[in-house]
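DM from R.C. (forwarded with permission)

"hey, sorry to bug you on a friday — could you get me a structure for this? deadline for the figure draft is monday and I only need the backbone to look sensible"
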Amino acid sequence: MQKKLLMLGGSLYQTYAIKEAKRLGYYVITCDYLPENPGHKLSDEYYNVSTTDKEAVLELARKLNVDGVVAYASDPAAPTAAYVCEELGLPTSPYKSVRILSNKDLFREFLLKNGFNCPKAMGFVCYEDALAKIDEFKLPVMVKPVDSSGSKGNK
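My reply, with the result:
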């Protein structure tokens, strides 16, 4: 019986992994909230489920009885993949570790707690909170999202 892989995302960057999984004989299912992504045309099935909604992805993975979950070229989806695999008893890195490595604030906290050098940083949930602390910054500063990569969201 053909093994099923749930690939979290179908962007251009993920098409390589989708093609390779199919070449290796897997039944490939993709999901994200962008139905026009090119990878969905390559997959065997597509579901409109956000790759960062770990409970919705878990529900989908259970329903489809998948053999694996992959977050290729998608840092924001990596914690979801680890969480779902952990919940389903599939091979994975620990969710707690992946979550720390995927979130800059949590990773800095981990580094400081474990005696590593780390640049000074502050994390904020909203713009107003950052403005309230503006006097504590030494300008210029770099503003980065805690949960993205590849310079996405940098200011």
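R.C.: lifesaver. The two ends are 49 Å apart (CA to CA).
me: no worries. The mean pLDDT is 92.
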